[in-house]
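In response to the reviewer comment on reproducibility (Comment 2.3), we provide here a single inverse folding case reported in full, input and output, so that an independent group could reproduce the run without further information from us. The structure tokens appear first.
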């Protein structure tokens, strides 16, 4: 649950950069968005691993 909260924090934190990139064409904001998306990918993988372990451990 803690990692899921972190995912929500990261998404909320990059919202302004997403708007800057798509609406204003700010390339630097696009770079920040790409980095945050890579971080999210890692967090998502960690969550997947935890869920699988918990699911398989419950059997």
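Designed residues, in position order:
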């Amino acid at each position: 649950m803690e990692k899921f909260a972190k995912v929500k924090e990261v998404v909320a934190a990059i919202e302004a950069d997403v708007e800057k990139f798509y609406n204003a064409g700010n390339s630097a904001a696009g770079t920040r968005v790409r980095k945050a998306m890579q971080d999210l990918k890692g967090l998502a993988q960690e969550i997947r691993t935890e869920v699988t372990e918990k699911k398989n451990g419950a059997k």
